[in-house]
Amino acid sequence: LFLPVSVSNGGMISGLGYTPFAVLCGWLVVHSIGSIFQFKNRKLQMRLVWALLIISALGLALPFLAPMFIGAQAHWLAYIAPIVWVLLSYLAWRGIHNDDQLVKSMDRLR
Predict the structure, then answer these.
(1) Alpha-carbon span 107 to 14, nearest angstrom
(2) Where is average pLDDT lowest: 21-25, 26-30, 86-90, 100-104?
(3) Which residues contact 1 (CB under 8 A, 6 or more apart)?
(4) Which of 13, 46, 87, 110 is the 20 to 30 Å CA partner of 73?
(5) What is the pTM of this model?
(6) How many helices (H) and strands (E) does the chain have?
(7) Are the C-beta atoms of residues 22 and 63 closer than 8 Å to each other?
(8) Mean model confidence pLDDT for the chain
């Protein structure tokens, strides 16, 4: 789904012309899966998801900077993927935060 593709000036499609986006997406996938398995340590999980949110927000600039560095227009997916990732990261952080608040409130009732 997040295949990095760029279109050069001649209209040729190149799958290797947008390597930074591929590296970013690969790192985000590994980081997301790693944060899922930290469910026993909610504080660490929240920090990992927060870092994921910041890195994916910085990734929003990558498609706009690509024409300056590689001379090719980024594929439309390169513009949408970081936005989706930021939104999903925020929703994950909010869910973890709500779970943490629920556990704290149950601890107070004991």
Answers:
(1) 55
(2) 21-25
(3) 77
(4) 87
(5) 0.69
(6) 4, 3
(7) no
(8) 77
C-alpha 33 chain-centroid distance: 11
Percent helix, strand and coil across the chain, each to the nearest 5:
75, 5, 20
DSSP 70-102: HSSEEPHHHHHHHHHHHHHHHHHHHHHHHHHHH
- Residue 96's CB is within 10 A of a number of other CB atoms, namely 20
User: Do 59 and 24 form a contact (C-beta atoms < 8 A)?
Assistant: yes
Query: What are residue 5's phi and psi, to 5 degrees?
Result: -130, 135
Are the C-beta atoms of 67 and 74 separated by less than 8 Å? yes
| Angle subtended at Cα 96 by Cα 110 and Cα 80, rounded to the nearest 5 degrees | 170
CB atoms within 10 A of CB 65: 11
Tokens of 50: 């927060």
AA letter at 78: A
